[in-house]
Amino acid sequence: MIDDILHIFFPRTYTLGNGKVVKEKFNWAPYITIAVIIFSIFCAMATSVDIPRLIQRSDAFWDLIREMMPPNWSFWKDLQKPMIDTIVMSVLGTVVGCLVALPTSFYLSSNFELNNVYLVGHRGLLSLLRTLPTLVYAQLLSIVIGTGTLAGTVSIAIFTYTICVKMLYEQIETVDMGPYEALQSTGASRAKCMIKAIYPQIRGYFWSTVLYCFETNVRSAAILGYVGAGGIGVQINEQLTWRRYGNTGLMVLVLVITVVIIETISRELRKKLVQG
Amino acid sequence: MSSKQLTVQSQLDKFPSVLPKFIIGLLSFVVFYILTTITISFKGINERGILIAINAFKGLFNPSMKVITDLGQYGLLQMLFETLAIAFLGTVIGLVFAIPLAFLASRNMFPKWINNICLTLISIIRAFPSFMLGIMFVKSIGPGAFAGVLSMAIGSIGMLSKLIIEVIEDLNPGIAEALDAAGCSTFEKIRYGLIPQLSSNIISIVLYRLDINVKNATILGIVQAGGIGAQLMFAIGARRWSDAGAMLLGVIVMTVVLEYFSTKIRTRLAGQKG
User: Fold this and answer.
1) Are A227 and B233 within 8 A, CB to CB?
2) Which pick of A47, B43, B45, B220 has the fewest CB atoms within 10 Å?
3) A175-189 pLDDT, tens per residue?
């Protein structure tokens, strides 16, 4: 057993009967594992990980859950409006973002032989914007255009645009270009060829991308209220400040149920879209 | 000549009418318009807003060198490292919990009732909003990076185990049988039969999740769970635009560099497999 473990690090050499020496293949994996463990310990020190404190304070965590757990059902009346706001924000943001992304992604695909400088520039800009979470846009926009649901919707739309374009142009680059060339030979304009020859090939994929973005956005829209961009986050922030954990419990419950319902519906629809 | 025109005409008539599509489009436009009116109130951008926007634009493109070169606790490098550390440690701890959970939830490893319990647990973890976990940990063990690590670890379990289950269910049982027939010990069976089949897939899943976690670690700051997020939000809220610009630049550079390397490693792993 110990021998086995030692030979993970130091490859064995065998001498065969005819005097030939066979070396085992050298493997980096154990060294990488050790490096990861050392880096984890270093990170643990940097983030002041404190296991005794976790055990000591775990009572407080369960107390918090116990206070939340019989949710305060009477709060449901005040909850409807922000919940609807959250969903509408993500629906509108997703629709606007994806509708703008659809035509743009055609002009960002490399298989139509368009202007290369524009292509690289726009793609580079989008990959920079993609690194920022929705929350940062919401914070910036809530200062510039005022707090409220509009800031949230616009920030969701921007974020959706950046990820939707990438998913779409990667798909468009894999389509069959035959129909496109056939249409072009009849003298149709480039935009017409794209609509009639390329769009039908990515239609299912496009709608499944829309659903995927919607799923992601419902999750991220919940927190946008923290920076004043509307939705249920405003309420969560307020109720937590007032230490009304019963109300918070109800909000978390409603949020979890909404996410599960939307995810289930979208998963079923996406299965159908991929098949059809 | 005339017969040819007639064929074109008849083909055109066969083409389905666009009217239903047009009506659906119009109806959905009306629905979205109504949704807009009930939710979104737009008061118009006043002059102050435009002024703020101009200032913000100027500031964001003039990142403050003071923040970038500062090596103290609120310097850019230290905050970025803390964010990275939260994401990395969260992913590693999440993986440690996700692998046994994924084995328990795989149909080819354990009986059905154990699978169902584990799958329910995974879907509850997945649906629970991760910032809420952050809030709960901050409330119970106090603000700081440790709370961020814990919430990130639990938040990662859901997706990691869901993707690892797929890998485990694709395992080839023939290899373990062949090693058995060759007289290998259990240790050797795991070393030469199981790990080589799983490792490249699991590494690429983990790198993918690490990418996501680095992005999410910025969000955790808003609930005081450590990382660069809190300082970034304060800077934007207080309209210290050049500080905010420096931090945004840091976040963008870190994420792009990480994404570049993780994509490169993942393509290499995928190539190795094929």
Assistant:
1) yes
2) B43
3) 888 999 999 899 888
Model pLDDT for residues B74-95, shown as the tens digit of each residue? 778 888 888 999 999 999 999 9
For residues A135 and B232, give the distance between their C-alpha atoms in angstroms, rounded to a whole number. 11
CB contact under 8 A, A92 and B256: no
Cβ–Cβ gap B216/A133 under 8 Å: yes
User: Of the candidates B82, B85, B219, which has its C-beta nearest A223's C-beta?
Assistant: B219
Q: Is the pLDDT of residue A84 over 90?
A: no
Top-ranked range on mean pLDDT: pick from A198-212, A223-237, B216-230:
A198-212
Burial class (CB in 10 A: 0-12, 13-18, 19+), A101: buried
* B239 and chain A in contact, CB less than 8 A: yes
Question: Do the chains contact at A60 and B187, CB–CB below 8 Å?
Answer: no
Cβ of A25: how many Cβ atoms within 10 Å? 5
Quote the minimal CA–CA distance from B176 to chain A in Å. Answer: 18
Domain ranges for chain B, please list them: 64-273
Based on the fold, state whether residues A33 and A82 are members of the same structural domain: no
Amino acid of residue B250: G
Rounded mean pLDDT of B9-20? 79
pLDDT at B272: 65
Number of domains in chain A: 2
Q: Are residues A172 and A211 in the same domain?
A: yes
Per-residue pLDDT tens digits for A191-200:
888 888 898 8
What is the model's pLDDT at position A11?
74
Inside any domain, residue A129: yes
**Contacts for A86 with CB less than 8 Å, ≥ 6 apart:** A218, A221, A222, A225, A230, A231, A232, A233
Contact A231, A144 (CB under 8 A): no
**The architecture CATH gives domain B64-273:** Orthogonal Bundle (1.10)
Question: Measured between CB atoms, which of A47, A65, A135 is closest to B226?
Answer: A47
- Mean pLDDT (chain A) is 86
Chains A & B: contacts with CB separation below 8 Å: 167
The token pair that represents B263 in the structure block: 């994509």
A40 and A117 assigned to the same domain: no
pTM: 0.84
Helix (H) or strand (E) holding A21: strand A21-23
What is residue B274's predicted lDDT score, i.e. its pLDDT? 44
